[in-house]
């Protein structure tokens, strides 16, 4: 192939990837935003309710995803968080493609990247930007940097790995399993283990600690609240049967999320009985360790510790799935039809958004149940309670005490934005000091279930219960309306 032909070849595949990314961003931003009245659960409760306060840490997770979603919401309004999610997915595709170009011809790298459109985590869950989605591009970035670092030994790539690892720590602690997979890969051969005798890994560790240090200081100062939350949320296996079942269920659920991609791979001629690459193939070993390692490590840790695991924790673990499938089927490369792959991807770009709309916007009403989280009456609640607060106190509403979801919905629609006193607990919302609460007071709201009394955590000193307000769910044709109990903790200290 001549140089001119090769340049054209490379450019054509890069352009195809850009078209694919453009379709992903447009479709998966516009469709969820068009149908949404409110914003998804994690965007509100773990994003805006926290990010509005710009802390170096929060009681559940590290701070970076909350900061970013707050910035996008402030700049772009409701469409901002939806766009942010798809930019994260777009960056994931880009880093996967760059990784693939180091391991195989560009045509095959493109195939391995496009196959990710069939992985569940790249479609239906993506409109809800959260810490799992935020991990996806960071893991792909770290994997690419690690590959270049371990291959070239150059310090700039080790520094890049450290930067990506530090950002990963600021995103979610589950990144530890990716680091363990990298460590296992480094120890797997003498050639890769030789890196420990160079400054590279230690430079990466130093950069990672430097990037994450403000959050690490916050953790120490606040007595590691995120670890306590993670333990409580995940739960522990009660006995041997549960301990065995949890990792098995996790791995089975991950296989299910990969099924569409495997079906597409089979349809385009990739999945056939072929001998796997030899054990001494460094590229294949890299893809196995980093492509399968995090999920297997997670399952083994759960088995050994009894620590429960959540299916959605697998979201960032399968970035290299397409590349692994393609590389393992090397003899099939000449027979793979790019045209057939494009058709399958186009079909997925129709089927998956349709399934999202049905599952989140239509199915709940068909069942006569409560609408999805993106169909809540947030603006009506904010307008009603803001006016009720002003009538009762003759002051501006600045604090909403509630759970992160209900309080977050109301707070994000107030003008200017109110702070959320999450669960009425200063450990969850340290930005609400006793002095601020006395000076500004708080609107207390909770979802009633036939009882006007608030949950014990929201029974704040000085609370005056005002009653219940009823709100119709937007677009709901059947089912009960939303009943919200409310009360007031009136300001008692003079405003400054």
What does this protein look like?
This protein has 496 residues and is α/β, with parallel strands linked by helices. It folds into two domains: 3-360, no CATH class; 376-489, no CATH class. The chain is 61% helix and 6% strand. It is built from 18 helices and five strands. It has helices at residues 3-35, 41-51, 64-76, 79-103, 106-114, 131-152, 155-171, 175-187, 190-193, 200-221, 225-234, 240-267, 282-305, 321-328, 338-366, 378-393, 404-413, 434-440, and strands at 399-402, 419-422, 442-447, 463-471, 482-489. It has a five-stranded mixed sheet with strand order 2-1-3-5-4, covered by helices on one side. α4 (79-103) packs antiparallel against α5 and α7 (155-171) packs parallel to α10. The protein starts with a helix and ends in a 7-residue tail after the last strand. The model is unreliable at 1-10 (pLDDT under 50).
Strand and helix layout:
Layout lengths: L2 H33 L5 H11 L12 H13 L2 H25 L2 H9 L16 H22 L2 H17 L3 H13 L2 H4 L6 H22 L3 H10 L5 H28 L14 H24 L15 H8 L9 H29 L11 H16 L5 E4 L1 H10 L5 E4 L11 H7 L1 E6 L15 E9 L10 E8 L7
Helix pairs in contact: 1-4, 1-5, 1-15, 2-3, 2-17, 3-4, 4-5, 4-6, 5-14, 6-7, 6-8, 7-10, 8-13, 12-13, 12-14, 13-14, 16-17
């Amino acid at each position: 192939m001549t140089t001119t032909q090769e340049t054209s070849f490379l450019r054509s595949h890069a352009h195809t990837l850009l078209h694919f990314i453009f379709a992903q961003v447009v479709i998966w931003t516009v469709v969820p935003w068009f149908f949404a009245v409110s914003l998804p659960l994690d965007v509100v409760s773990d994003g805006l309710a926290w990010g509005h306060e710009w802390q170096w840490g929060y009681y559940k997770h590290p701070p970076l995803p909350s900061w970013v979603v707050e910035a996008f919401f402030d700049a772009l309004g409701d469409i901002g968080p939806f766009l942010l999610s798809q930019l994260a997915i777009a960056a994931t595709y880009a880093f996967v493609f760059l990784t693939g170009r180091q391991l195989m011809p560009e045509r095959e790298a493109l195939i391995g990247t496009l196959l990710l459109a069939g992985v569940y985590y790249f479609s239906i869950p993506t409109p809800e930007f959260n810490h799992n989605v935020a991990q996806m591009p960071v893991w792909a970035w770290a994997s690419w940097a690690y590959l270049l670092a371990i291959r070239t030994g150059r310090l700039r790539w080790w520094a890049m790995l450290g930067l990506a690892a530090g950002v990963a720590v600021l995103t979610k602690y589950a990144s530890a399993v990716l680091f363990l997979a990298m460590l296992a890969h480094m120890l797997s051969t003498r050639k890769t283990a030789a890196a420990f005798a160079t400054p590279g890994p230690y430079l990466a560790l130093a950069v990672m600690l430097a990037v994450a240090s403000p959050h690490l200081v916050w953790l120490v100062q606040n007595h590691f609240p995120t670890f306590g939350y993670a333990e409580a949320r995940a739960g522990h296996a009660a006995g041997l049967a549960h301990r065995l079942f949890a990792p098995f269920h996790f791995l089975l659920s991950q296989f299910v999320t990969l099924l569409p991609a495997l079906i597409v791979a089979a349809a385009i001629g990739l999945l056939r009985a072929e001998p796997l690459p030899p054990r001494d193939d460094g590229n294949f070993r890299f893809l196995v360790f980093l492509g399968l390692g995090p999920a297997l490590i997670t399952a083994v840790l759960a088995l050994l510790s009894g620590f429960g695991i959540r299916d959605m924790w697998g979201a960032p673990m399968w970035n290299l799935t397409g590349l692994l499938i393609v590389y393992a089927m090397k003899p099939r490369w000449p027979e793979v039809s790019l045209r057939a792959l494009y058709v399958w991807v186009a079909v997925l770009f129709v089927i998956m958004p349709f399934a999202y709309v049905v599952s989140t916007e239509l199915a709940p009403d068909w069942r006569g149940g409560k609408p999805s989280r993106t169909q809540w009456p947030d603006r009506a609640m904010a307008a009603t309670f803001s006016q009720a607060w002003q009538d009762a106190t003759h002051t501006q509403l600045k604090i909403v005490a509630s759970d992160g979801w209900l309080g977050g919905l109301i707070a994000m629609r107030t003008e200017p934005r109110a702070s959320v006193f999450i669960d009425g607990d200063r450990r969850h919302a340290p930005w609400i000091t006793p002095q601020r609460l006395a000076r500004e007071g708080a609107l207390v709201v909770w979802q009633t279930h036939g009882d006007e009394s608030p949950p014990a955590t929201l029974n704040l000193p000085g609370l005056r219960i005002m009653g219940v307000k009823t709100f119709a769910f937007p677009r709901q044709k059947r089912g009960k309306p939303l009943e919200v109990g409310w009360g007031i903790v009136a300001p008692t200290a003079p405003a400054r």
